[in-house]
Amino acid sequence: MTNNAPVITIDGPSGSGKGTIAKLVADRLGYVLLDSGALYRLTALAALNAEVDLADEGRVAEIAANLNIRFAIADGEVSAVLDGKDVSRDIRMERVSMAASKVAALPAVREALLQRQRDFRELPGLVADGRDMGTTVFPDAPVKVFLTASAEERARRRFAQLQGRGVSVSLRDLLEDIRARDDRDMNRAASPLAPADDAVVLDSTDIAIDDVLQKVLELVQNRIG
Ligand SMILES: Nc1ncnc2c1ncn2[C@@H]1O[C@H](COP(=O)(O)OP(=O)(O)OP(=O)(O)O)[C@@H](O)[C@H]1O
Ligand SMILES: Nc1ccn([C@H]2C[C@H](O)[C@@H](COP(=O)(O)O)O2)c(=O)n1
């Protein structure tokens, strides 16, 4: 970890485009990328594999603290490896998404993952995507973006994404799921989803990906140079 490396935090609700924008910004600037949601997803998958009760905070936190993971990069794509196995697809499954949202609400799990996230900070800089990057994990980040979009637009985006992968889902179910996750992420006691006081809020409901990218790069230019 390098404490003087600049950090760009991109927080926001599910489907707002954080992951897409974070990757584009990191590629453009040659920065390291932290997908913090993947850490919660990996914790959830490891807990499900071990058949641990997801409400057992102590045991899930122990799993989070001892995760044997690494992120591998091939052809510009990042894959998540748990105990030597590529689980990139597994952690995106619906049951893991739901489980991740549950384990992410446990304070001891968040605490167990805190330093692991901070360890991603290195020169020339880091782009960190999640829910509490700007509020809790990197409160001193010089650039903080809170990316949002209406729940309906986020459900439509997810629908198109899943259809593109040949997964059949109902738009109505996706919208319900998004609302349920928003509610859990925003109303938990530990590090709830919220913009940091010094974050710039960007509503991408009617803004194309390229235009969001340009806005973020302008902010970076103004604040980091
Ligand atoms: N501004 C935009 N306009 C249209 N589509 C977008 C926009 N931003 C992202 N998308 C699309 O929306 C989908 C969801 O984006 P992405 O996975 O980046 O969201 P996310 O906020 O990281 O979600 P999660 O937190 O659930 O991982 C992707 O298919 C992406 O291409
Ligand atoms: N910093 C973070 C990142 C993610 N979470 C939660 C929110 C989701 O329920 C789950 C998976 O995240 P995603 O991959 O969809 O971004 O993890 C969080 O609480 N804090």
Quick summary:
The protein is 48% helix and 17% strand. It is an alpha/beta fold and 225 residues long.
Describe the fold and architecture.
Belongs to the cytidylate kinase family. Type 1 subfamily. It is found in: Cytoplasm. GO terms for molecular function: kinase activity. Residues 8-221 form the Cytidylate kinase domain. With 225 residues, the chain is α/β, with parallel strands linked by helices. The protein has a single domain, classed as Rossmann fold (3-Layer(aba) Sandwich), CATH 3.40.50. 48% of the residues lie in helices and 17% in strands. It has helices at residues 18-29, 36-49, 57-65, 94-103, 107-118, 133-137, 151-164, 171-187, 209-223, and strands at 7-11, 32-35, 69-74, 77-82, 85-86, 126-130, 143-148, 200-203. The strands form 2 sheets. Strands 2-6-1-7-8 form a 5-stranded parallel beta sheet. Strands 3-4-5 form a 3-stranded antiparallel beta sheet, covered by helices on one side. Strand 4 and strand 5 (85-86) form a beta hairpin. The longest helix is centred in the last third of the chain and has 17 residues, at 171-187. The relative contact order is 0.22. Bound molecules: adenosine-5'-triphosphate and the ligand Nc1ccn([C@H]2C[C@H](O)[C@@H](COP(=O)(O)O)O2)c(=O)n1. Adenosine-5'-triphosphate is lined by residues 12, 14-20, 37, 157, 161, 204, 207-209, 212.
